[in-house]
Amino acid sequence: MLQRWARAGIRLIDYVVRRSLGVVEFTSDPDCILRIGPARAAQARTLSDGTAIRPGDLLCEIHLWNERLPKMGLDGPDLQWGLAMYRGMVRSLELLAQFLQTSAEYADAVAVHAEGAAMRGPEADQVQRLFARLGFDTAPRHAVTRRERFVRWWQNLYSTWLIWTFNPASLKGKRMSGLTHCEFWISRRALMERYGRGGG
Length: 200
Fold this sequence. Notes:
Layout: H1 2-21, E1 34-40, E2 45-46, E3 52-53, E4 58-64, H2 79-102, E5 111-119, H3 122-133, E6 137-140, H4 146-166, E7 179-187, H5 188-195
Parallel strand pairs: 4-5
Antiparallel strand pairs: 1-4, 2-3, 5-7, 6-7
């Protein structure tokens, strides 16, 4: 009973956090496993396809739709989980490309961005391979300053809460200190070429 109430509380916190960040469902398609929200680029970056991102540029930030993610087994990510995630992501990115074609709010978005946390080792490696296969640039996201390390600690705690709430079996034998963070980028142009109508 206590765990059920705790999970309900975390779901409520997650809902409040999402709404405060402007994270919303952009499609009613039941196969979508992504939500989106607006963000601004913090620093200049050039993506692998040559797209230049300037500080302040509008980004389409993608967030996992936790309630819809494939469940991970006790031994971590396996081939079946990876295949289910890949198919879900492909379908979601196709839907996102369709959405961006007509969205006034994201008309000036130059790229799609995400930041994810995963356990160091096979899990983090598989997540990075998954996003690379989907066409994203991947890069580690290190916490350097004291403030960044403080924020990262709270991010890791929150991520652990979410995993415990939505995919508890995958936490077995894992610690919050084992989480590592990565960034994922794909330009709007590359997204449209790959996942838009007529794309691959």
